[in-house]
# Entry
Amino acid sequence: MEPRIQYAQTKDGVSIAFWTLGKGTPLVGMPTLPFSHVQLEWQIPEYRSWYERLAEKTTLIRYDGRGTGLSERNVTDYPLEAHVMDLEAVVHRLGLERFGLLATLHSGPPAIAYAARYPQRVSHLILWCSYARGSEFSATSQSEMTRALIHQNWRLYTETVSHELLGWSAGEPARRFAALMRECVTQDAARVALAATREFDVAPVLPQVKSPTLVLHRRELSWHPVDLARDLASRIPDARLVLLEGSSIAMFLDDTEAVRTTIDEFLGEGEEAAATAEPPDAGAFRTILFTDVEGSTALTQRLGDAKAREVMRGHERIVREALKSHGGSELKAMGDGFMASFSSATRALECAIAMQRAFAAHNEAEEEPIRVRVGVNAGEPIAEEEDLFGTAVNLAKRICDQAEPGQILVSDVVQQLAAGKGFTFEDKGEVSLKGFERPMRLYEVRWHQEGQA
# Structure
């Protein structure tokens, strides 16, 4: 059944059309600027199937940006801040406190700006074939040539975009989608809106994005270089870059199953973490655990993005299973490592041992080994917005950096807390750690079972 169209009002008085579909964690699907029509898209089977698939596990929210679709068309200006206001209007209208954001191409910069501004609201940020600076995207030769057609021949422009950029096959499907594009927005509005994207620049706020971020891109997009996606992912803290096969900007064309699976896994990781997390109390004594995979960058260079990502998924699965079994709270997933906290030093050490034994079993059975460092410290960190900060956290990270692959290193505080609890410690002496004036005494936790090297 076709979703019911509703409206939200922006701070500057623009009416924004939207619908919701499904049940579950909210996922806001931002418009593909400036071509969006929440009603007519539903009439295209490929679009409809894609939306229904996303709504199987989420409450999907789709809206038309100002000047497009069923939203108010009497608009003459399209700065980045206006697109942020469109998103804010829908979020406010639905009373969303925390939600995922899915942004395509030109809607990526407004999504990044919003996530940087409201980190407590955005649970996940998914950026599809997007960029940080509109000037860099517009500089590609094919993008410039295609945009020039807007001024010359509106029908030819929409058919060219439909066929060449979106990847619709020649013939009726391409013509049908081109017709949809002409219904989404007027020629003049499209020209002005696309010209405005050249001024988009969220590069300065990329380091401020704290939400788990997934950057998706298709390898064969000749008009949108992979380098822009790599640059985007490299400047957002702990962002994950996944390169998929295909040449279409549309998520619902080419290998849609790979796109769906990647998004499901990314959103599902957050659900698992939320289900097992223990909210940190201000001033509470916590045990902090860090993990780090040896040679993750070299792994990607040697195996390629897709194969390396498969290996890293194995690492993530093992860590999360251990955290779940031992009451650990996942605070951060950093691509090649995790930060977690425990209410008990004993549980933290039991979890660390379980991880290393699971990785050892994996390495015996699989061709590609995963070797992980683990560092553990305890103290009273500062709790803020479901995260932990301070000296206790910094020391745990430095201890992890000091560990060898396959090793568990802990501070003297952790050793004292767990003394007499059945663990075997080896005194590694005093070690100088970066950022700390005095050397720290560290201990190695012996985790090998009898008969193991």
